[in-house]
Amino acid sequence: MFDIGFxxxxxxxxxxxxxxxxxxLPGAARTVGALxxxxxxxWANVRSEVERELAAEELKRSMRDAAAAADPRDDLRxxxxxxxxxTEQVRESTEDLGRKLDERN
Length: 105
Hints:
By secondary structure, the protein is mainly alpha-helical. About 90% of the residues lie in helices and about 0% in strands.
């Protein structure tokens, strides 16, 4: 979170020891530690909530895209065209068969 090295921690500790004194320094350190823990947990919760929201939004977007790409009317049009083609082939086959039967008679 912060880019603080060991030397900065030592300096902060020395200043805190001078300002607070040896009696109050352990309590202050515990309080600061607890506050930092709470802040870190809160930040982690906010980050995970934002990630969940982004994932949910991405899922909604992909579902919308998939629904738009798979238009059922296109499937129905394709099926109707295939049905017409098959019907035409059957009609031609029956006409050919009828001609062959007429030729035999």
